[in-house]
Amino acid sequence: MARVVVSDDAMIRTETLASVLGERATVDSAALETTEDIIDAVGDAEALVVDVNTPVPAAVFEQCDRLEIVARAGVGVDGVDIPAAAHGVTVTNVPEYCREEVSTHAVSLLLASVRRLNVYDRAVKRGQWSWTDGQPIHRLAGETVGFLSFGQLAKATAEKLAGFDCRLVATDPFVDSEAMAEYGVEKVGFDDLLAEADHVSIHAPLTDETRHLFDREAFERMSETAVVVNVGRGGIVDEEALAWALRNDEIAAAALDVIEDEPLTDSPLADRDEVILTPHAAFYSEESVTELNRWIATDILAVLAGDRPEGYVDPEADWL
Predict the structure, then answer these.
(1) Where do the D-isomer specific 2-hydroxyacid dehydrogenase NAD-binding domain residues begin and end (predicted)?
(2) Is 221 a catalytic residue?
């Protein structure tokens, strides 16, 4: 019987994994806070399941000789040393995971920011009662919404925005204009995205190219009425630059589900009325968590059987 080690994250449900794996494998949960923790916990296990907060460096692949699969419980694989894994260990993720949830969250953040719901909410709770507290508010219909990256989650977001009479544009070097056009989206470069989009929704992975892509210069080039939504990775937005942009009216508002250093501690964004912050929760619904764990277990079974799993991560992929 194979052995599966999982990080003790709330969205990794050992009971769901065990129900799918059946008699093929046992499931052990452990706190995996350091590389040494992972190596000690994995031992002779064949499978390791980790959440977004658990990096898997080269040392794990070098010292865990029986490891056959590292399954990332999420969409990205940042933090997993893919080149090290390429020598005999399969890495998987769940690319279709939480498509409905993240796209709904992104649209919700955009609509709440455009309609200044957070500003109104805080004003009313302070004892104020005036529609002018939200000024200025601009009509969403007719405006341009831009996407940084156009993968599955951005595509679902575009589908949800289709009924709002917005022009949709996106920048993504790995998605061609024909594929974007199927979703009513026009392909543009990053410079044009900043110049043309009234609002931007960030869905990109964190790479050397995307880290702090939204810096002071980027915010200066955006509309002063723009809303920036981030449901991608926190490091894409330079938060000091964002706070500066808000203070200087370079943009109007921001709504972030992800930040650079989670959880939030001391942030210049925390006390600003025009900022909405949610605790990396865009992925969550009870249905999405169940689907996630079933997908992971199915991929583990495929690898143990010598088959290619559905969530296989190609180590030669350009986007890694």
Answers:
(1) 108-282
(2) no
